[in-house]
Amino acid sequence: MPSTKGSVKTRAKSVRGAGSRPSRHGQAYTEIRRRILAGDLAPDEPLSEYQLAGELKVSRTPVREALKRLEHEGLVRFVSNRGAFVTDLSIRDIVEVYELREQLESFAAGVAASEMPLAEINVLERKLENAQRLANEKGSVKEAFDSDIYFHKQLIQCTKNGRMATVLATMDDQVHRIRILSPSAHGRLQVMLCEHREVLDYIRRRDREGAQEAMRRHLRAARENAIRLMTDAHH
């Protein structure tokens, strides 16, 4: 009987290789989502299945599946007889996101003031100083974004409260879209980093109430800035 060992190995390798490649639906989803979050696809922009399929070099089916998935995530909306559109970011969305963030992240700042190890405080301070330096020298938006994300994530992680982290993670996409607006305001980049510095100073001093109140002020300022930019954009 001829040996089938080689053919079995070949088939197994083929199956593993096929499984390791992203699906066309997955590729379409990842790229359309990236474009929305980067602002390349603007709020209320129509999403043509034909156009996207051509650009992504896939058929319409994976594009349609990707748009349906993004609809469930709140990034795409379907309008009867008109098709798919990028979801608009409303003032109400901004208010709701920041109301929840203010309650949970002020608590996180208080916990950090009580429990964050000094070594972690020092890391936050070095990253903040680097972001401030690059913002002052080069107006670096990317460093400010990265610093903002890292700063807030570390304070949330310090609580060791998995449920709170999960709740906040569900808003990551909305928060990211709001963040894109923030540096557009004159001077907001530097002000945001100074607000981080104030929170961190209270944490270093182990002042729980001070850290909580500083975080509230920071998030309220970010909310008002985002609302002002959104209002201006619609006029």
Descriptive report:
This protein has helices spanning 5-20, 24-38, 49-56, 60-72, 91-115, 118-138, 141-158, 162-169, 172-181, 188-204, 208-233; strands at residues 46-47, 76-79, 83-86. It has 235 residues and is mostly helical. It folds into two domains: 5-86, Winged helix-like DNA-binding domain superfamily/Winged helix DNA-binding domain (Arc Repressor Mutant, subunit A, Orthogonal Bundle), CATH 1.10.10.10; 91-233, Four Helix Bundle (Hemerythrin (Met), subunit A) (Up-down Bundle). A three-stranded antiparallel sheet has the order 1-3-2. A hairpin with a 3-residue loop joins strand 2 (76-79) and strand 3 (83-86). Helix 10 packs antiparallel against helix 11 (208-233). The chain is elongated. The protein starts with a helix and ends with a helix. The model is unreliable at 7-20 (pLDDT under 50).
The CATH class of the largest domain turns out to be Mainly Alpha
Indicate how many domains the architecture comprises: 2
Low-confidence stretches: 7-20
**Sequence of strands across the biggest β-sheet:** 1-3-2
- Helix count from the secondary structure assignment: 11
* CATH superfamily caption of the largest domain: GntR ligand-binding domain-like
- For the record, the CATH architecture of the largest domain stands as Up-down Bundle
- State which percent range the strand residues make up: under 5%
Descriptors:
235 residues; mainly alpha; Arc Repressor Mutant, subunit A; Four Helix Bundle (Hemerythrin (Met), subunit A); 2 domains; 3-stranded antiparallel sheet; 11 helices; elongated
